[in-house]
Amino acid sequence: MNIIKEIPSKETYIVRQPVLRKGKPIESCIFEGDDLKDTYHFGLYNSGELIGIISLFTKINSIFAEKNQAQIRGMAVLESHQKKGFGEALVKHCENFCIEKDIKLIWFNARTAAVGFYKKLNYQTVGKPFDIKDVGEHYLMYKEI
Fold first, then answer.
1. Which end of the chain is more exposed for a tag (fewer CB within 10 A), N or C?
2. 112 touches 138 (CB < 8 A)
3. CA 110 to CA 112: how far, in whole Å?
4. Half-sphere exposure of residue 134, counting CA atoms within 13 Å on the CB side?
């Protein structure tokens, strides 16, 4: 059985590191703003094991006119559990959470390899790809909800 629940930021590291910061120190898994009161972290548990995570930051991107925005960061599913719908479940959980909080727009920086995944969930790219130091090429993506 799958359960998605809110978790502390530190619990995200066991998924963030192998998926998003492979070969890098655990400190690289700490994101600025992780522990703010308006930052939320969700974990997806499959048979009691944490296999996927997603973080939602209250952060405005001035490119968008919408006043009520949130940024997704650190969305990751352990490699052995990818392509099974868990990532989609995490994103939809965040979308529903945002609807409850009256947040109208979700945005994030998506790795080039993940753009297709997000497009299937009706997210759109904005502008050209850009490089995030030590992480790789990304696209700005968003969706009005």
1. N
2. yes
3. 6
4. 8
